[in-house]
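Batch manifest line 231
LIGAND: adenosine-5'-diphosphate
JOB: complex structure
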Amino acid sequence: MMLSRLSEAWEQQRQLVSDVSHELRTPPTPVHGYLQSMLRRCVNLTELQREALEVASSEANRTIRLLQDLLDLARADSGYLHFDLEPLVLNDLVDEVVGMAEQFSEQSISIEAGTFPIEIRADPNRLRQVLLNLIDNAVKYSNPSAPIALRLDRINETVTIQVRDRGYGIPLQQQTRIFKRLYRVDEARYTEGSGLDLGIVKTFVEGMGGSVTVRSKLGKGSIFTVTLPAN
Ligand code: ADP
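JOB STATUS: finished
ARTIFACT:
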């Protein structure tokens, strides 16, 4: 009886997170839209007004992304997270993601590929988010002058994507915990972040039939390796 009550309570908690994230996501979406359209259309804004609108718009966007992450994690927990798996050329998708990442960071990001084309079966939107989260972390947890490198390989029926940085690194005892939701290494408290990004990475990669691991050395950098089935 106790187990069944516990399981009921868990289910209610999951449902609550899912409902609340869904409801809360609705208001900031049009707010972000209005702010963006105002920024595009108003030509006579003072510098201060433009700056204020940009901050408001980026905060609204951050809230939307946070709530979307919570919603996806709640859906994954109840087995309702949907994946649109399709054949993809990984090299092209990675080029596109790196192009996007270069818009928000000045850091050098290189791509090496063992072969071309590397074909995989994955959900393109979810894989984009996985790679953006890993690149975003590589940028956040390293100095602006430290390069970031992506390496793609196919070995038999598996494909690996490595995201390597030469940043601050992660202490050994924390390396297994960082994939847990809301877990942040102490030093990271001073950077902007929710502690959900790697939870999303793990959930999405596993949902596409793959796995993710990390190797890291303090002061030297980190290598995150995503393994996915080849097509
Ligand atoms: P956050 O929003 O804090 O970045 P994440 O889930 O992305 O949350 O990561 C969890 C923690 O793992 C971070 O707080 C940080 O301490 C550590 N971490 C993640 N990626 C890296 C990296 N590339 N280099 C060093 N530390 C990292």
